[in-house]
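Before a colleague's protein record goes any further, I have to sign it off. I want your independent view on whether this chain really folds as the tokens say. The record follows directly below this note.
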Amino acid sequence: MLKTTISKVSQYVDQEVTIGVWLANKRSSGKIQFLQLRDGTGFIQGVLVKKEVSEEAWEAAKHLTQESSLYVKGLVRKDDRAPSGFELTVTDIDIIQYAIDYPITPKEHGTEFLMDHRHLWLRSSRQHAILRIRNEIIRATYEFFNHHDFIKIDPPILTGSSAEGSTDLFHTEYFDRDAYLSQSGQLYMEAAAMAFGKVFSFGPTFRAEKSKTRRHLIEFWMIEPEMAFTDHEESLVIQENYVSFLIQSVLKNCPTDLKTIDRDISKLEKIKAPFPRITYDDAIKLLKDKGFDDIEWGEDFGAPHETAIAESFDLPVFVTNYPTAIKAFYMKPQPGREEVVLCADLLAPEGYGEIIGGSQRIDDLELLKKRYEEHNLTDPAYKWYLELRQYGSVPHSGFGLGLERTVAWVCGIEHIRETSPFPRLLNRIYP
């Protein structure tokens, strides 16, 4: 028995193979049954011709229900009309289990129903394709940073403090003291950069924001590189090269998945570094020219503002040099202009908003102490962070890319909830 997977059938054209599958759907045309099969690696059509199989196999196939599991044996045929380019001429089937009353049928279902059945919704071709693209972005992330000599370091998920002094934290008890779920690994990655030079982390982060927008999740994954001896301009180059690499990797390795979700790849094909840049000052002027009279210098941008800015460019755009007052305490002021910092947000096209936030970090001990006082960061849990500036401080920069927002943009998805296998939303922690 030659056992394989749907993703590898191209290696066995005109050969008989056996594949473990689930039935996604089926239709019948008299003496032919068409089985839409999936195995986790892909989808393929199995064609069952009555006169070419045993009576037992024919009857078993007739009684197959959606999501029933089986082993299917068949001859691999090349078929350019098929989405995968191949088809299976079925010669025999071996039923593992008949599924009964599978709740997600080919008819339309409401979002809440589908989210309640997320554990099953993942099996659909669209959700399958989205999460395969997510996987490719993760794979390409490791390839990019490994190729550029970064070391992966894992920051803790339980922390004694907030990375940005935020109150939007999930609190827990750590034996006899307070602890929080991490909202960023950045501070720890700065410590790692002082040991290894160039590092990155990839892990879950948590924000207790009571937000219901299509861009927000309560639990999400971040890629957070930190680089010693690296200034803001050098960091921007790394950021745009990284994002370009992700897009090109998805285009190269996920063409079938992009086709499954009907993504307009012409919009992705143009995503190549370098990316345009606009200062916060000029962004304010741009917004006022576009009719946003309510925005004033010193205010942060909301989703409509970010969308309006991005619409003025064909590529992702860096908005640089935000006001010091609205950014985190650790960001380095621009020399000669203390009211703004050396930072940038990367806004994705098509209204997907910020996918990267980054900055050059303060490397001066006295200035960081001053920032501590201004932000009332008296907690001794921050003591170790100050010490990074006390023992061999160097210029350093870093950034964080939100995985789910990036997946949403690459896939052209309206709501971020489809980018996570099991999304955590304001009113959802099931399944």
User: Anything to note?
Assistant: The mean pLDDT is 95. The longest helix spans residues 125-147. Residues 202 and 223 are 5 Å apart (CA to CA). Residues 119-419 form a domain with the BirA Bifunctional Protein; domain 2 fold (CATH 3.30.930.10).
